[in-house]
Amino acid sequence: MDSKDIDIFKVLANETRLQILHWLKEPEANFPCQDVDPRMVGVCVGSIQKKTGLAQSTISHYLSMLEDTGLVVSTRIGQCTYYRRNEEAFSVFVTHVATDL
């Protein structure tokens, strides 16, 4: 197991980060009023923050951690940063866990 795997497990050990990943799996259902296509572009950090009820700085930190592990991808449009799941990274990680652990 390498350090990237350990980082992913650490990120997944937080209930709020897990909830964000769960919400981003079906962004249309969980964030219905987006200005962009949530599947292609993502969900605005402000919408994620509002849904969690946590401070903007906390959510930004959590999303940064998720992005550092490759589990989410960000896109900046205007004043908002949008986040979406990186399904390819999930697939690689799940395969790695299933075959190597």
TrEMBL record:
A UniProt-annotated Pfam family: HTH_5
SUPFAM superfamilies, per database record: Winged helix' DNA-binding domain (SSF46785)
Domain HTH arsR-type: 1-101
Molecular function (Gene Ontology), one example: DNA-binding transcription factor activity
Keywords in alphabetical order: DNA-binding, Transcription, Transcription regulation
Stretch forming the signal peptide: none
Superkingdom field: Bacteria
UniProt xrefs under InterPro entries: ArsR-like_HTH, HTH_ArsR_DNA-bd_dom, HTH_MetalResp_TranReg, WH-like_DNA-bd_sf, WH_DNA-bd_sf
Protein's name according to its UniProt entry: Transcriptional regulator
